[in-house]
Amino acid sequence: MKKLLDRVEAVVDDMLDGLAWSFPDYLRRIPQTRVMTRARPKDLGKVGIVSGGGSGHEPAHSGYVGFGMLDAAVAGEVFTSPTPDQILEGIRVADRGAGVLLIIKNYTGDVMNFEIAKDMASAEGILTEAVIVNDDVAVEDSLFTTGRRGIAGTILVHKIAGALAEDGCDLTTVSRGANTAIQNLRSMGFALAPCTPPAAGQPSFTLAENEMEMGIGIHGEPGTRRQPVQPARDLADYVLSRIVEDLQLKAGDSVACLINGMGATPLMELAILAKDVSMWLQNANIPCNFALMGEYMTSLEMAGASVTLLRLRDDLERWLKAPCDTPAMRQGVMHER
Amino acid sequence: MKKLLDRVEAVVDDMLDGLAWSFPDYLRRIPQTRVMTRARPKDLGKVGIVSGGGSGHEPAHSGYVGFGMLDAAVAGEVFTSPTPDQILEGIRVADRGAGVLLIIKNYTGDVMNFEIAKDMASAEGILTEAVIVNDDVAVEDSLFTTGRRGIAGTILVHKIAGALAEDGCDLTTVSRGANTAIQNLRSMGFALAPCTPPAAGQPSFTLAENEMEMGIGIHGEPGTRRQPVQPARDLADYVLSRIVEDLQLKAGDSVACLINGMGATPLMELAILAKDVSMWLQNANIPCNFALMGEYMTSLEMAGASVTLLRLRDDLERWLKAPCDTPAMRQGVMHER
Amino acid sequence: MNAEQFMRWWICFGQEVHAHLDDLNELDRAIGDGDHGTNMDRGLSKVRELWSLPKTPVENLLELSKTTGMTLLSTVGGASGALWGSAMVQASQKLPVQGTCTTETQIAWLDAIVASMENRGKARIGDKTMIDVLRVGVDILIKGDPPSFSERLNTVASSAREWSEATRSLIAKRGRAAYLGERSQGHVDPGSFSAALWWECLNRAMGE
Amino acid sequence: MNAEQFMRWWICFGQEVHAHLDDLNELDRAIGDGDHGTNMDRGLSKVRELWSLPKTPVENLLELSKTTGMTLLSTVGGASGALWGSAMVQASQKLPVQGTCTTETQIAWLDAIVASMENRGKARIGDKTMIDVLRVGVDILIKGDPPSFSERLNTVASSAREWSEATRSLIAKRGRAAYLGERSQGHVDPGSFSAALWWECLNRAMGE
Ligand SMILES: Nc1ncnc2c1ncn2[C@@H]1O[C@H](COP(=O)(O)OP(=O)(O)O)[C@@H](O)[C@H]1O
Ligand SMILES: Nc1ncnc2c1ncn2[C@@H]1O[C@H](COP(=O)(O)OP(=O)(O)O)[C@@H](O)[C@H]1O
Ligand SMILES: [Mg+2]
Ligand SMILES: [Mg+2]
Ligand SMILES: [Mg+2]
Ligand SMILES: [Mg+2]
């Protein structure tokens, strides 16, 4: 394993310190914790937003701490959900008197640890709501199993919930908005090469030169199917077909689109995928009113990408386009002329 | 070679289309060219800024086209400098009546192609100046050879020149500011794993499991020395020592710092390197007043990083911190409270 | 069960998990995310550290179960951390604050641990999780046949690895492996394997 | 030299570069960025395309040299594109707009090509660039010994690969390889090798 690090057992702590140093205008690390919070706390009386999960998905989640998105991000060990005590710290700091929304990705570990923390917060008298993101169409949705995973689409939920909270909406409204986003959100990803979690020291799976994994999650695990490598255009076609079918999108429906790199795939290749996605959507007569392309939710140095569509309604589009100012996502009317 | 692409011979064209689609508020591709220009052109009467180089360094350079940075970016084939006719197109579109500054990285090919384009522009009556960035301390500076390479520090030159131009300074002033930045700018990089240019189809060099290359450029070429892999702390120590010595930085001098990923290195590792850099600077009593950490100038999917320091003076710091709004770099007083 | 047995049991569990660190990670790599051994090991070594402090209330079983749970809860992370941690905290209420506990109490407490996991994780036998080893074991202890607790416990401990092995043919319904659907077949569930180690250590600790 | 010879020469050059595409890239990978073959091949195949158009002014040597240069300039990129392209454009002024050119003119033109490269690239013999093959060759043609041009050209063509090979022991002073310092030793300069192919093709075209 070749990695740029100092102590394998301290990667998360070292990383959090490095992030806080790199983004002093945005981030503070709460001492003795793995909670990153806003350098300038949100106004009192506004709903706080907390997210988090295993580390290794950077810039998720601390990259989204800031105006218009999260108030606190809680980091677990690499690919391991954070523990309830840490999540509770995040909830405490995010609470500005109007309650806190937890944005959870649908993994058993994340869901359970956040739920335990939520119970603890309630016991302390902090109002909390939780939404569970499950955008991954690679996995069948079912009440009798764990259901679908939460992957890169989570970023758009952060954005939408954050905009509502910054707007001064109450907890129920923020939570309802986040759930509306989740209902209209679908993603799917694939990997050309695995990643190596530092503690494990070896790749999470191995692929031959002409093989890839379709339907991966974000924890370095293998996907739902192994297949020969295909041109970007065919991959775009496959994942978009799956997403559009699952969302029952019709010609004329407009969407937001997130093209997300898994870590090692260069921006050049993501841009080529973006081109293919744009042409596919154009052929399907599905206008894209909001696009993001880059590394938003990674799996360490996995090579690959995911595509997310969010079916837009006027309100969702407005919240998506609202200003935000975080380490990894900044938008606004700043320099419009 | 496993890559997310469609046609090897069209990677640059496909990428540029994908970038234009992904950043419609920022970028336009000039039809039939490889020039990306601002969606909202700069005010008339302000100096235009043009940069460019081989492709494969994304987000450089089209990621810096926008308010406060570049007016046009010219893309060559992967790792190959653009041709003069394309650069001329960029100069033409960037000219808002006050002349154009060319920001060139010091590679023979880039320098010569930009110079030829500059001659052509002059022949058309467009006022141009050129500055040559040569921040790489891995290579000895010498009048009798090519001198030092230009690498990631180039981004800070874009930023500073862009701020001056946006401020309404004339071409001489903008050019002088860029040169001041260059004189105070040093960088050094290293690779843990090579990259594979699409047309070549094979890695630019090979490394054993415990080997790395110190002193790399940004074109996938080997560095100045092969060595065993070291902890991030030791790498930070080595490159900072070299930079600080070359810049003759003294305790109390303040700097800006750019920690740049080469492509495949995850943000987690860059953040760990940032932590080590921050501690080194603190020990050396060199305050860092402006930090950037992320992927700013890459080498496709090379694994590795570079560190850049810019010795600050009041004016350089002010220009660095001035607002900008581009696909890859956005900052401002937008949401300060 | 007395406090010393409790501690010997969990120390043994920690040692066994540590000895099988790579095996557990390897099992998790096949159908999960490769960290089950690392997760459990991180938490269990913290539990041991706790007891090497001078001021441990060694005679308080309730407190032992609760602090074990709290420690796991705040150090393991992941699915296993939430399940083991909160179960040990919740079930601790069944244990006495002083002295040993009876076999009946111990069984009720073990049942409460597993019930808490079932409650939180929604897994049932056959879902290819640690429940496949824990619930089956507790049910044997509850059933009272053979009448000797130590004999039943012997049976559980000596069968636990088989139950774990039996998860191989199942399709996962809960936890991370569920995302693999049919691809999860042919691999043993990592949590069921660590659960087997837990039974083995309990048996060993109670026999000493 | 007549127009047909000019075109045969450059078509040959394109074919040879294409045949040695991987070799040239391989040489460039060792001490550069691995694209010299791809760069030259991209440009030279465009040059050939140009001449397959019906309306080429085949009888105008000046125009041939200039459009060859313009095409290389706008398609090759990199150091070699700037050097070959601008040299061919600049030197074209030495050639007549009609008919063949004399040996003296041809030599003056070849000298102008290399001088233009030296001017733009600042490389001298021994800097481990294509100048090591181009300047040495032109100087032999200029010197007039032996008196027969075709004999001198023969010498140049048959020695060119040796001159290229001789760059192996040098430390690069110009171009990308210069960044490697002493590590550039032990490798042949790619541009010197393509330059050797250029001399060989000129000799072949003039002999036909
Ligand atoms: N819902 C659940 N109910 C019971 N056990 C579960 C559940 N989800 C996961 N597990 C157990 O947890 C184990 C995985 O633990 P671990 O790898 O530490 O956590 P994670 O899956 O979060 O990485 C699985 O092998 C399984 O036995
Ligand atoms: N300053 C220079 N003068 C003459 N020849 C040069 C100079 N710089 C580079 N070259 C030649 O160009 C060749 C490299 O060309 P190429 O690989 O196509 O361009 P790049 O170096 O931009 O990738 C070198 O092998 C060398 O012969
Ligand atoms: Mg995990
Ligand atoms: Mg090149
Ligand atoms: Mg796991
Ligand atoms: Mg080259």
TrEMBL record, chains A, B:
Residues 7-329 form the DhaK domain. InterPro entries: DhaK_1, DhaK_dom, Dihydroxyacetone_Kinase. Keywords: Kinase, Transferase. It comes from the Bacteria. GO terms for biological process: glycerol catabolic process. Pfam families: Dak1. One of its GO terms (molecular function) is glycerone kinase activity. GO terms for cellular component: cytosol. Coiled coil: none annotated. This is Dihydroxyacetone kinase subunit DhaK.
TrEMBL record, chains C, D:
Keywords: Glycerol metabolism, Kinase, Transferase. It catalyses: dihydroxyacetone + phosphoenolpyruvate = dihydroxyacetone phosphate + pyruvate. The gene is dhaL. PROSITE patterns: DHAL (PS51480). The keyword Lipoprotein does not apply. Residues 4-204 form the DhaL domain. It comes from the Bacteria. Transmembrane segments: none annotated. Its EC number is 2.7.1.121. This is phosphoenolpyruvate--glycerone phosphotransferase.
